[in-house]
Design a protein that fits this description.
- This protein has 110 residues and is mostly helical.
- 75% of the residues lie in helices and 0% in strands.
- It contains five helices and no strands.
- The termini are far apart.
């Protein structure tokens, strides 16, 4: 009997990916993907073929959660944010995962 109650409880909660935490994770992923694309572009380094599958999978998952317009908006925010935008995206993702914020970075004097 208890097994059936546990199963019913799990069904009542629905898919955990439908909640706000999943949307936040998808926005973080899209921003990080955009920031990584911008960094590769600035460095003149293409996406390594070995990483293509992971990037495509994360892109598809984030787009499925957010929908194409919201995914594109978050990706573009990461893409045009420069170094500061990338650092913001990393801080947000670390906070979402419950990890401590990375130490602040300092720029070398020109």
């Amino acid at each position: 009997m208890r097994q059936h109650e546990d199963q019913r409880d799990e069904e009542d909660r629905g898919d955990p990916r439908d909640g706000p935490a999943d949307r936040t994770a998808a926005v973080c992923a899209a921003r990080l993907l955009g920031a990584a694309a911008a960094a590769r572009r600035r460095a003149g380094a293409p996406l390594p073929p070995a990483e293509r599958g992971d990037v495509d999978r994360v892109t598809a998952e984030a787009r499925a959660v957010l929908g194409a317009p919201a995914f594109t908006e978050a990706f573009d925010l990461g893409d045009r944010g420069g170094r500061e935008g990338a650092e913001d995206a990393v801080r947000e993702a670390r906070a979402l995962l419950g990890l401590p914020a990375p130490p602040p970075t300092t720029r070398a004097a020109p």
